[in-house]
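To fix ideas, we reproduce below one chain and its tokenised fold.
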Amino acid sequence: MSARVTNIARNTSYFTIALIIQKLISLTYFTLYARVLGPADLGKYYLAISLTSIFSIFIDIGLSNVLTREIAKHPDRAGNWLGAVLAIKIPLAIITALAVILFVNILGYPPLTKELVYLSTIAMVLDSFTLTIYACSRGFHNLKFESISSVIVQSIILVVSLIVLHYGGGVRWLMLSLILASSFNFCYSLFILWHHWHLAIRPLWHWPRLKRAILLAMPFAGYGIFQRAYIYLDTVLLSKISGDVATGIYQIPFKIINALQFLPMAFVASLYPALSLYWQENREQLSTTFNRAMHYSAIISLPLAIGGWLVAEPLVAIFSASYTGAVWPLRFCLVAVPFMFLSYPIGSLLNACDEQRANTRNMFIVLIISIIMNLLLIPPLGAVGASITVVVTNCLLVILGLIKARAIAPHLWRWLKQFGQTILASLLMGVIVWLLTPHLNVFLVVIIGAVVYGLALLLTGSITVADVQSVMRSFRRRPVINN
């Protein structure tokens, strides 16, 4: 195994473990929020986060992607690129924060919602600069520090949230826990930047490099704006059309689906800088790496969709009887999971191969379709309408991406040969889950289903013993590239 392939495996393994822990912790405190706050206050809380999440892209405008890619290509220029990115982002952060405040006042949200948005804006700014610092680490093919921090951040939110809820604090205090965690993450990333990478937070006002950074970021910026709007605008539309209760109910499937995406996120975090290099040096390895990512994405996402559909009702019941209306929205969102997973490596491939404009165009098309469908379906169907939109638009995004990807490198379709085997294994698991769900606890059913699925993958040849051993070895290898 080559040095870079070894590093991809190791980075993916460690980052995956961190994301699993992070998402489990996140789901734990989300469950507490849902049970204690109820749908209305939960809707207000996540409306504030959704609004600031949309606006946050105007601080970064794709600069973190540029930073990762350029450092991966030219590590010796890391300090210059970081300085240029900071010089652009500092004024953008001030302008964006003011824009958020103006926006919520123009729309006339109630005082509590405004306060939550103001608090969330503080976390938004801190997180954006933290993202920039970790973009440097990703450019150096290192996800270790980001993995550690992600777990600590979620642990801080959980501990502070438990204290707040124990003493009867409301949503304002819960939002303060988010600010505290973001502050720690920012300080920790600064320490890593100084101590490990020997880089300084020093804006560099060098116009030629600023201009180049902005030009390189523009395709990423367009994609990021459209993507954030696509992900979070349905929550905003639900709040204005159907109210806080519908918004709170929709957060159940939204949070569950978001939690499931830790695996494609881990793939892309280590995949993107490697694909950038393969595009320049080794097109055959580019195809091999992409096909492996697509194959593993299908292996993981198909059982989640099928098994999740079958256990959706007992899963929703965990959050309390107030959220029974979330069962069908969750089922529809689960249908979209395989498309969501496959879109990650496709988007990463296009970005790494200088096809950012294609990604941007595809996301713009999907956003327009999403807005139209949400405006048509939310008034009569509420959260169900929003979830149906999620299925259609994610399917469309994959189709558009694959059309462009086939022209980039040879042999990009090898993963389809094993797709049928993965579907067969998933259906076998689905039958077992369907038979056991009425008789056993949902968590026990999930465990049994996972075991059955793993055996079915081996029997159908969708994965081999060598594949499993390769993943296990990745945890024991010393990193090949550290700086």
In short: The chain has one domain: 3-474. Residues 474-483 have pLDDT under 50 and may be disordered. Residues 73 and 379 are 49 Å apart (CA to CA).
